[in-house]
Amino acid sequence: MAFQTMEWIGATATLRLLDQRFLPEVVQYRDLATPEAVAGAIRDMTVRGAPAIGVSAAFGIAQAALLAEAAGRPLIPALEAADGVLRASRPTAVNLFWALDRMAGLWRAGAGAAQLLAEAQVMEREDIAVNEAIAAHALAILPQEVTFFHHCNTGALAAVGVGTALGIIRRAHEAGRKVFAYLDETRPRLQGAKLSSFELMEYGVPHAIVVDGASAHIMRRRRVDMAVVGCDRVAANGDTANKIGTYNLALAAQDNGVPFYVACPSSTIDLATPDGDGIEIEEREADEVLRIGGQRVAPEGAPAFNPAFDVTPNRLIAGLITEFGIVRPPFDVNLRALLAGRDGRVVSCGK
Ligand SMILES: CSC[C@@H](O)[C@@H](O)C(=O)COP(=O)(O)O
């Protein structure tokens, strides 16, 4: 692979992130030396995608402990401050809070810097395995020839391993399936056109970038076997927050009889939020809408509204593809059973 989304540089205790803001034109890395810098990189979308955000934040916590220990400062105030600044970086992807809670469980119990770094590295390795398991479960239901519709970027750039939805597309291609993918360009940040296409070009997966508004038309006129997207938070009833435009895509899929799947690690499931109405939706600056590639496309002074995510109601979702299997409706029952199974009890994927 010609790029690596993140890398921990032990010698300098820095987190090296591929700066996704400049892809596909420039492959350039940033070395972040403090948890505040890591939080800034999450906020400005140097790193993005729910799993990648979570693991980056875990390294930010480890970094806080390492810096405090090296300076002989007390650990807990440093960790509390780092936790606060990282928690405030982006609101919607629950993986951020999941990762910070997991790290906080350790440092509140007295873990030191070495143990916190080891835990961040465990999370890094886990993500790789989880991504592979998601792809393997998906492959089991895919035909030999398959055309996908995909939204945003959910691949290696959004994770540590191959990613979720885009990881499925990549692994299906590598497994010898005859794969084609339509990639929504994903306005306003263009993660589909810039990042997902960058990845699929790299892997040699046949695809076409389409404008977001083309999905219903393409599903009506052309072969599409499955829409598959990632997600930032799944509520207890299966309502799913993902990049703005996902809900539109799900509606288009339903109207055209195309099964709509959401691929996610179980760390994206948030049983504490009963339904999608309780999910905070990040609102970003108007300029993302008003400009394309730095160039203003709207009249001077025109207003804009820029919600970065939307919530797809559970009734539009055929299944959630997790590392433990494919969760089918009724999601309220089956998601609880899935997470109970993760703790060693019964696993029911509602197949
Ligand atoms: C496996 S990534 C899943 C989601 O995080 C992805 O679909 C998405 O919405 C990313 O949004 P972004 O704003 O680029 O961080």
TrEMBL record:
InterPro entries per UniProt: IF-2B-related, IF-M1Pi, IF_2B-like_C, Initiation_fac_2B_a/b/d, M1Pi_N, NagB/RpiA_transferase-like
Positions annotated as active site in the UniProt record: D232
Keywords, in A-Z order: Amino-acid biosynthesis, Isomerase, Methionine biosynthesis
A Pfam family matched in the record: IF-2B
Record's catalysed reaction(s): 5-(methylsulfanyl)-alpha-D-ribose 1-phosphate = 5-(methylsulfanyl)-D-ribulose 1-phosphate
EC number(s) stated in the UniProt entry for this protein: 5.3.1.23
Single GO MF descriptor: S-methyl-5-thioribose-1-phosphate isomerase activity
Record-marked site positions (Transition state stabilizer): C152
Residues reported to bind substrate: R48, G49, A50, R90, Q191, N242, K243
Coiled coil: none
Top-level taxon: Bacteria
Pathway: Amino-acid biosynthesis; L-methionine biosynthesis via salvage pathway; L-methionine from S-methyl-5-thio-alpha-D-ribose 1-phosphate: step 1/6
Entry's family note: Belongs to the EIF-2B alpha/beta/delta subunits family. MtnA subfamily.
Function: Catalyzes the interconversion of methylthioribose-1-phosphate (MTR-1-P) into methylthioribulose-1-phosphate (MTRu-1-P).
Designated name of the protein: Methylthioribose-1-phosphate isomerase
Annotated organism of origin: Paragemmobacter ruber
